[in-house]
Predict the 3D structure of the following.
Amino acid sequence: MISENRIYQAYYTKSDPIVNYMVSLLSLKGSEKILEPCAGDGVFIDPIVKTFPDVQVDAFELNDNSYSNLLVKYSDFRNINVKKTDTLTDVDLQFLCSMGGGYDAIIANPPYGAWRDQEERRKLKRSYNGFYAKESYSLFLYRCIEALNDKGKLVFIIPDTYLNLHMHKDIRKYILTQTRIKEISLFPSSYFPGVNFGYANLSIISLEKSFNQKTTLENEFSIIKGFSKVEELGSNNDNIRTFNLKQKDVLNSPDYSFVTNGEKPIVNCLNLTELKIGDICDCVTGFYSGNDKDFLKVRNKTIRNSKRYEAVNLDLVEFTCDASLIDGLTNEKEYVPIVKGGNRKYYKPDDWFMNWSSEKVDFFKNDKKARYQNSSYYFRKGIGVPMVSSSSITGALIENRLFDQSIVGIFPKDETNLYYLLAFFNSPTCNKLIRSINSSTNNSSNYIKKIPFIEPDNQVLEKINERIRTILEACKTSQDFDSGLEELNNNAIKEIYGF
Ligand SMILES: C[S@@+](CC[C@H](N)C(=O)[O-])C[C@H]1O[C@@H](n2cnc3c(N)ncnc32)[C@H](O)[C@@H]1O
């Protein structure tokens, strides 16, 4: 049973500072035609009609109860037209959009990730030119921009994921070419009463529709961040940081991604470095047995998170593995070491083992739940970066072992780069780059591939390699390393990249 909240995603904007700031961004005069596309209990409509009792408002709402309440609440207002409808499929709205729009102002807190079944999602994707249909807020944004008149204003409160997630590339292009963005404020989702996504921050975007492409590309807008409390929205306290971006520059950057950290050297490096990790490495996700409880074993029960797993018989482990083993073991051994997720730098000890007899591998190849994927990279030399990082990105050597699906395996096409890349994937420089490409803690291969690669000169490369050799030896023998060596590598990389 799907809960009502998952369908409607009705998190109401119960915060005066947010509501006041958003309404002020519309700079209303009272003569506008306004749309509230997911009206809820009318938090945005109330302050607007308080100031302009006669302003024209269309309030759309899908939920029966909310719709009835709105009808009662605004029964005395002939200028407020409450409609029970699905904004995303409303045919009158679609018609209005096909005629070039009809609203002067649109304000909303649309549902985020509202649930729809697969068939509906397919339909939505078709009618929204293939736009990503799992995340409802971007479809609301698209439809509402379409519904604006030329110079019509829109203010939305939405997660910040549209700014750089790969799946929102199309909506970015649409915004950048069809509107003039005024400002984007970024703040933690905890400012929003009752909501804390953890995975993303929230943003308030304010923009103006523009039929004139030339002026959209030349337009400069502000990114505003650094708020210490919600009341600071719209103020200019000292801690608040504002910087400007030009739409043309964002449109020219890879995947039209908005770099919101404001550091020029990082923005330049992302936009101007032609060579990317994806050009010099293959980046792939690893293996999953489909049933780790039965097939995965642990060195002993002192290993973290080992409770559900049996200890392995070390006599049955094949430690010298190479690419010839992708179809399974053919000797008397039964297990191979596997590198799992978890943020550990440089080297992960052999703590986990996968049942890798040739029969089991045949089973993995055919089982529906198992993921026997990218097998040509199994048991090769590469770097494993966990898909989700705790605080900073980390990389550890895979070195002739299997690696699991919680890891992105990075395999340099030229092995001479291996140790330099191992130093790089553990450096603050790399962390700044990946967090600018994607501000969440997600390191999926799509983002890793986009990290710029700058080659060091031979002397620097040799020094970094030497330090990495020492660090690896120390990790293998004492599971610790000299942080001074790491710092020297980090400084060298900082010099190469400039930050
Ligand atoms: C996040 S709430 C926001 C409500 C209100 N604007 C506010 O900020 O407090 C989203 C509202 O949109 C409604 N809703 C969800 N999907 C909708 C759709 N497809 N069309 C119209 N309304 C929808 C929900 O019932 C809910 O009331």
